[in-house]
């Protein structure tokens, strides 16, 4: 069936806002929208990118909290607002514009495991907070250490690894820049390119001057036990002992359901927004990792959700805002 011939299911739920994504950005938006007496549906697939992370850092009053516990607390707070509903383990399969007499502007068809998940939701506005998918370098045991002693966010986790022997593993062109950042927390850093030609000779010389070692050989695997990494084993058998480290994933936005809307994106595929979270389509807002420039700390994503919610409410009632 062609897209033009597709007939979306009839919405059984109509709300002011549908929030797509149940992470910090989406839950923060939903909380603030609920407090503004806005009817809200949150659609949460239940597959957070940071599910492997044991502790989240840098979130004021919640430094060191497990990410799943943070989500649990946020969901409990939403329970105080009767106009906010959450559909768990549900996904939005499309987002289509409509022209309805009662002010509904979008239809979001849903698929979910729970019986209470409606076939579709109609909304006046939409907040997209679906985050990103991440692809790690092809190192067999990397996932066994990821979120425990190997991390992706220096601002989030480098404090706990400071002054130790650290690795930075990646195959992206910004690897040298990431190395300079991580070197703020340690003077014993080895950068592993896993055979990728992503650090040029000029960058290597600059890093070497700061005591950063570049290792260009391919990686066979990581060594360690119960999430505690102890060494990087290279393809030729060489072992380089480490106490932890960072990896540079490749990220891609989880926005396949948006093919029905012509939303502007940046070179990385994330949604282009103004500083208030408005996308290029009126009535559609984005916050968190799904919005340019991409990956954010939890507290930053939550702040973006709150700002998008405030601006959305102003826009719904036609009040100009300084945001």
In short:
This protein has 323 residues and is α/β, with parallel strands linked by helices.
Task: Give a description of the structure.
The chain starts with 12 loop residues before the first strand and ends in a 6-residue tail after the last helix. Strands 1, 2, 3, 4, 5, 6, 7 and 18 form an eight-stranded mixed sheet that branches. A five-stranded parallel sheet has the order 9-16-10-11-12, covered by helices on one side. Strands 13-14-15 form a three-stranded antiparallel sheet, with no helix packed on it. The mean pLDDT is 93. With 323 residues, the chain is α/β, with parallel strands linked by helices. The longest helix is centred in the C-terminal third of the chain and has 20 residues, at 298-317. Helix 1 (24-35) links the parallel strand 1 and strand 2. 21% of the residues lie in helices and 27% in strands.
Main attributes of the structure:
323 residues; alpha/beta; FAD/NAD(P)-binding domain; 8-stranded mixed sheet; 5-stranded parallel sheet; 18 strands; 21% helix; elongated
- Envelope shape: elongated
The CATH topology of the largest domain is FAD/NAD(P)-binding domain
- Unreliable residue stretches: none
Range of strand content: 25-35%
Mean pLDDT: 93
Task: List the helices and strands in order.
Answer: EHEHEEEEEEHEHEHEHEEEEEEEH
Using only CA atoms, what is the Rg? 22 Å
In DSSP terms, counting alpha (H) and pi (I) runs of 4 or more, how many helices?
7
Top-tier CATH class of the largest domain: Alpha Beta
- Helix percentage: 10-25%
Counted beta strands: 18
How does CATH name the architecture of the largest domain? 3-Layer(bba) Sandwich
How far apart the termini lie comes to 43 Å
CATH homology superfamily name of the largest domain: FAD/NAD(P)-binding domain
- Major sheet: size, sense and barrel closure? 8 strands, mixed
Secondary structure class reads alpha/beta
Count of folded domains: 2
């Amino acid at each position: 069936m062609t897209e033009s011939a597709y007939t979306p299911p009839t919405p059984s739920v109509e709300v002011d806002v549908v929030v797509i994504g149940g992470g910090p950005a989406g839950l923060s938006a939903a909380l603030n929208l609920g407090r503004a007496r806005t009817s809200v549906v949150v659609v949460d697939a239940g597959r957070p990118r940071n599910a492997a992370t044991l502790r989240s850092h840098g979130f004021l009053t919640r430094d060191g909290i497990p990410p799943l516990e943070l989500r649990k607390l946020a969901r409990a707070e939403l329970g105080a607002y009767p106009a906010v509903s959450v559909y768990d383990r549900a996904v939005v399969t499309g987002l289509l514009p409509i022209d309805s007499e009662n002010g509904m502007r979008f239809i979001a068809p849903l698929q979910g495991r729970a019986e209470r998940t409606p076939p579709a939701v109609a909304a006046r506005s939409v907040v997209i907070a679906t985050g990103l998918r991440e692809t790690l370098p092809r190192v067999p045991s990397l996932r066994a250490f990821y979120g425990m002693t190997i991390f992706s966010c220096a601002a989030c986790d480098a404090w706990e690894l400071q002054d130790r022997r650290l690795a930075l593993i990646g195959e992206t062109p910004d690897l040298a820049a990431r190395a300079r950042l991580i070197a703020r927390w340690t003077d014993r850093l080895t950068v592993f390119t896993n055979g990728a030609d992503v650090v040029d000779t000029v960058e290597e010389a600059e890093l070497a001057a700061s005591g950063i070692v570049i290792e260009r050989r391919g990686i066979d695997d990581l060594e360690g036990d119960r999430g505690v990494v102890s060494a990087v084993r290279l393809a030729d058998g060489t072992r380089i002992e480490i106490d932890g480290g960072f990896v540079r994933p490749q990220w891609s936005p989880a926005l396949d359901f948006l093919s029905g809307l012509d939303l502007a994106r940046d070179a990385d595929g994330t949604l282009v927004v103004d500083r208030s979270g408005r996308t290029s389509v009126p009535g559609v807002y984005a916050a968190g990792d799904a919005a340019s420039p991409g990956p954010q700390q939890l507290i930053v994503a939550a702040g973006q959700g709150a700002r998008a919610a405030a601006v959305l409410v102003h826009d719904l009632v036609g009040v100009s805002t300084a945001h």
